[in-house]
Specification:
The chain has about 150 residues and is an alpha+beta fold. The chain contains 5 helices and 8 strands, in the order H-H-E-E-E-E-E-H-E-H-H-E-E. Strand 2 and strand 3 form a beta hairpin.
């Protein structure tokens, strides 16, 4: 009985799997945990990147960067500072949250040029840095060049 309850809880807190819904969102949250094919590089106290190796090739990955500067176009100039949220945030925004297992179903080009393209705001939820009842979110950019056809 306990195993059934635990399985039910895990399935309820799973991340969204609906592609059409994700394409329509203007803000997408991407969960990051320490796994074999996920890598985080911290260069300075404020600049970092997250790499998602979706295929076995070491050269092909999705690169999400958190810049080291403040955005002068935002109202308060603090749009790149980390957001600290309660863990209840995960439950509230689970439909707009994707993870590595969701992304690895697709090719890099499809993810960058179709799924996450356009004027979308992307946040990495760094679950590795979460403490007690708080999680850390970083606003990031997806660095990828989509081919242009005439």
């Amino acid at each position: 009985m306990k195993k059934l309850i635990i399985l039910f809880l895990i399935s309820n807190f799973g991340f969204c799997q609906d592609i059409d819904y994700i394409k329509k969102l203007d803000t997408i949250y991407i969960s990051f945990t320490k796994k074999k094919n996920l890598k985080k590089n911290i260069y300075t106290s404020n600049y970092r990147d997250y790499r998602f190796y979706l295929k076995k090739k070491e050269k092909e990955y999705l690169l999400f960067e958190k810049p080291d500067y403040k955005n002068p176009l935002s109202e308060n100039g603090n749009s790149f500072l980390p957001r600290i949220e309660d863990k209840a945030f995960l439950k509230k925004y689970k439909k707009s949250t994707i993870d590595f297992n969701f992304l690895k179903k697709f090719e890099n080009q499809y993810i960058a040029c179709d799924l996450l393209s356009g004027h979308k705001t992307l946040y990495i939820i760094d679950l590795h840095e979460s403490k007690k009842e708080k999680i850390v979110l970083y606003k990031v950019y997806l660095i990828y060049h989509c081919p242009v056809y005439e």
